[in-house]
Amino acid sequence: MKLIAPSILSADFSDIGRAVELAEQAGADLIHVDIMDGHFVPNLTLGPQLVAAVRKRTRLPIDVHLMVENPRAFVPPFHEAGADWISLHVEATAHLHKDLTMIRDLGRKPGVALNPGTPIQTLREVLGTVDFILLMSVNPGWGGQSFIPRTLDKIRELKAWLRKERLEAAVQVDGGLKLDNLEETFRAGMDIAVAGSAIFEAPDPAGTIREMKRMAALAAADKDG
Ligand code: DX5
Ligand code: ZN
């Protein structure tokens, strides 16, 4: 399966419910919500209240990307707010295994995120603990940045490693994904595409999601065939 996860960071915050409904109707698979604390990344964004509000407007799984220091402190409030998938950064915690296990024990899907400058080798001890790995393809903090091309090799290396270890974890890629680089990123092995500005700043957000879904289906068929 190849999935599309619209990131509401680039949606109109005065009408977030409508953006979420539009994404669901257009066939999105997940709603990606970027949480930034002004410390781990320079920007400040959303909290559990927003996730609880989104929860009321969609049946899609909510994928919370924690770009915060001390992520452990924020796992319970986002769990209570209705997050289904929760990822935290390897660079943000000294207790990676413990924090990921906490997410699993709460019945949510744990994911581990890596900044562009962090090697995949840092995942070694938790590779079997997570449901997904989020590779940042921009330096986190803002939407609308350019895709870092080196990410393609990182995806290939990670997929080869997962295959070797016979692990099923999905590879999510986040940052700078657009219609014109989606196909090659899927071909490199991406399973889940996160896209913010390419969707919500497009003249036709729903049409863009439908087109991304079409590309995801083609990539999935290609892989199976
Ligand atoms: C960046 C966030 C992304 C962001 C992606 O720090 O983690 O999820 O919304 O935005 P685009 O798709 O515009 O690069
Ligand atoms: Zn994100």
What does this protein look like?
This protein is α/β, with parallel strands linked by helices and 225 residues long. It is built from 8 helices and 8 strands; from the N terminus they run E-H-E-H-E-H-E-H-E-E-H-E-H-E-H-H. Helix 1 runs parallel beside helix 8, helix 2 runs parallel beside helix 3 and helix 6 packs parallel to helix 8. The model has no long low-confidence stretch (mean pLDDT 97). Helices cover 37% and strands 18% of the residues. The structure holds D-xylitol-5-phosphate (DX5) and zinc ion. D-xylitol-5-phosphate (DX5) binds next to strand 2, strand 8 and helix 7.
* Average pLDDT for all residues: 97
| N-to-C series of helices and strands | EHEHEHEHEEHEHEHH
Low-confidence stretches: none
Shape, principal axes of CA atoms: globular
Strand content: 15-25%
Helical percent range?
25-40%
Number of strands: 8
Rg over alpha carbons: 16 Å
Q: Assign the structural class, choosing from mainly alpha, mainly beta, alpha/beta, alpha+beta, or little secondary structure.
A: alpha/beta
Enumerate how many helices there are, as a single number. Answer: 8
Strand order of the largest sheet: 1-8-7-6-5-4-3-2
Instruction: List bound small molecules.
Output: D-xylitol-5-phosphate, zinc ion
Largest sheet: 8 strands, parallel
What is the CA–CA distance across the termini?
A: 13 Å
